[in-house]
Amino acid sequence: MSNVVVLDNGGGLIKAGIGGEREPTAVVPNCVGRPLSSKKWLIGDQLHSPSSDLTSASLRRPLDRGYLINPDLQRDIWSHIFTSLLPLKNPSLSSLLLVEPLLNLPSIQRSIDELVFEDFNFNSLFVADSPSLVHLYEASRSPYGLVSKTQTSLVVDCGFSFTHAAPVFQNFTLNYGVKRLDLGGKALTNYLKELVSYRSVNVMDETFIMDDVKEKLCFVSLDVERDLQIARRSGRDNLFRCTYVLPDGVTHTKGYIKDPDEAQRYLNLEDGAQSPQLKTKEGMDRLEVLGKSNDRMRIDLTKNEFGLTNERFIVPEMIFRPADLGMNQAGLAECIVRAVNACHPYLHPVLYESIILTGGSTLFPRFAERLERELRPLVPDEYQVKITTQEDPILGVWRGGSLLASSPDFEAMCVTKAEYEELGSARCRRRFFH
Amino acid sequence: MGSCWSFGEMSWVKYVDQAMDEDTSNPLRRMSSRTRKVAPKMVAALASNDNRTQAALARLEALENDNAGAEMVEINEDDDASLDDDDQAYMRKQSKSTKRKTRQAKALENAKKAPRTFLELVNEANLESLPPHVPSYLRAAVGPPSSTSRRHFCTVCGFTANYTCVRCGMRFCAIRCQTIHNDTRCLKFVA
């Protein structure tokens, strides 16, 4: 039995489990939250429990911009996960595979090592970065595919805190080629909050609700100009208008989409590229409750609800054009081109042909399609552009880690506690070549 | 609302722009002296003369906040104290009443305990001193966009915005949105 704990310590979600398994045991928010009504901070999975009322909860996160800034808070969250969610009796008998952000700072690496070896007493530690794990996982899924034959890929990780385009070669991330765009799911949620708060209801404190709105309703537009025109129309002609109902705390403790059919209408707009997705079962139930179609049309002020039109595609749009937000950064397509150009010219054609999308923010519908449309004009004609999406972009990194942890020579790659005590953090870290 | 409107408004905008050139430096002096709640970065932005760029930066910073409400500090405009001489203000307060912890003292104590932000850690790591071939957090940032110019969206309704507010630089698309902007948002530097 493997006793390697695989921990993908993301800014938004922690993915934790035992190496060798397919699914992580715990996927919980990497934050503590305190509801208005109580003084106790809820950790991780407690935030998901149906009894807790998260309206206007205040949040604390151990990570800022993807990097660990609050080791004390992280220790509390980890110990909660290890003791109550994972069957981890004694960390001193287990190894830890930890996913760290790219180009981590030495001071942060030191505090992580302290956390792992001195607070939790793990037997050994291996630090991996997300692009190489995603590459490993994709290569193992198709042993005769391009990724595994050439051992080369370009991983685009669009997560909670930032977006990275990272070339991977022979299972190692080429760190000189890594390009970062300082936009991720968190900034997008905050942007959506800002827009909705100004235009309809003040939701500045409702991080969880707005995350849900973003995940369920936002999509990537293929033609912003045209879609803005459509969003201007009134009534049924406006294919993007939809209404989200906020929880009232009595009958609904979770917010929901008032009319899921209406929210899916934008899919029919395109040249039949995608078939409308199946409605969620929950949505169907709601629909029956709400019934009458005519009262769906207008905003009911007695219920707390708000309408969304152009916000639905303007929010994810910022990943492709951060300049619109006032950021002095290039969009995702250009980010990829610059990452590729930083590598050896022999790698360029292969990198463009093996782009892998991972991270929760790539789940916006049509993300890959739009990216390909933006990327194609920037790439030389003779190269092919091929974008692969992962089957589960949120768990992709963790599964790669699980795979690596179950490989026979994993133990040999780790830094043991004895080595750490002998050599210290900085010298142990050289082993991982980051 | 035809093109007629747009033309009229454009010239009006230009005219006012010229007229206001002399006293753009202190449109902020005429604010109420009551204590207002402003995000910490906003304090610096409001104090500076080049407040448009500063506010834009502060706003980008705000997109990375966890809580909208909790990260507020109170600034009291009656008091001359800026954020930097909080210590002095704290000392003064303490000499007056030594028995009880004031709210300010508590806040200061929390601030000391609070973890440093990531940007502080980056500054501390002194990444600029690395030789140019070593990849680092700062060098990994994708640079400015090459060709695409910025599109502007109306801060009120979200559609393409052709006009800029002369006082605060925010965008709006029509006179209706301008009215809303002036009533609610002008010079508040939020989006």
TrEMBL record, chain A:
InterPro entries named among the record's database cross-references: Actin (IPR004000), ATPase_NBD (IPR043129)
Signal peptide extent: none
Gene3D superfamilies associated with the record: 3.30.420.40, Actin, Chain A, domain 2, Actin, Chain A, domain 4
Keywords: Nucleus
GO biological process, one term: actin filament-based process
GO cellular component terms, semicolon-separated: nucleus
Predominant localisation class: nucleus
Location of the protein in the cell: Nucleus
Sequence similarity: Belongs to the actin family. ARP6 subfamily.
Name under which the protein is recorded: Actin-related protein 6
From TrEMBL, chain B:
Ranges of residues in domain HIT-type: 154-186
Domain of life: Eukaryota
Protein's UniProt keywords contain Lipoprotein: no
Gene Ontology CC annotations of this record: nucleus
Pfam families reported for this sequence: zf-HIT
Record's keyword terms, sorted: Metal-binding, Zinc, Zinc-finger
GO molecular function annotation: zinc ion binding
Signal peptide feature range: none
GO annotation terms (biological process): chromatin remodeling
InterPro entries registered for this protein in UniProt: Vps71/ZNHIT1 (IPR039723), Znf_HIT (IPR007529)
Name used for this protein in its record: HIT-type domain-containing protein
Originating organism: Camellia sinensis (Tea plant)
